[in-house]
Amino acid sequence: MTVDTAGLLSRDAEPQLGQRRAEVLDMLRAVGSPVGVREVADRIGLHPNTARFHLDALVDAGLAVRAPQARTAPGRPSTGYQAAEGGGVAAPVPPAG
């Protein structure tokens, strides 16, 4: 699947990649390996639910992928997120006005 990243970042395209979502994507690229929701939230300064919202949207757009993380305790494995290969450049779209 090819993602039109330029279209996502264009002022004329819907949906646009907002500043927070671009920050999350840039952080995923900088880390380079799967990270959990809590780590993303802590690094960006978001509530974990808000971080999960942005991560899921990036996955839906093809800019990030989910990756199961190794378990350290009984229970289901945590889900990590990492930037998708060839996801383009994340640059926030400035607010109109």
Which consecutive residue ranges, at least 5 long each, have pLDDT under 50? 89-97
What is the H-and-E element order?
HHHHEE
CATH topology of the domain at 18-71 and 78-83: Arc Repressor Mutant, subunit A
The global form is globular
Q: Strand order of the main beta sheet, please?
A: 1-2
Q: Please report which band the strand proportion falls in: under 5%, 5-15%, 15-25%, 25-35%, 35-45% or over 45%.
A: 5-15%
What's the total number of strands? 2
Distance between the termini: 34 Å
What structural class do the secondary elements suggest? alpha+beta
What is the correct CATH architecture of the domain at 18-71 and 78-83? Orthogonal Bundle
Instruction: Please count the helical segments.
Output: 4
Kindly provide the name of the CATH class of the domain at 18-71 and 78-83. Answer: Mainly Alpha
Describe the main β-sheet briefly.
2 strands, antiparallel
Q: Classify the helix fraction into a percent range.
A: 40-55%
* The CATH homology group name of the domain at 18-71 and 78-83: Winged helix-like DNA-binding domain superfamily/Winged helix DNA-binding domain
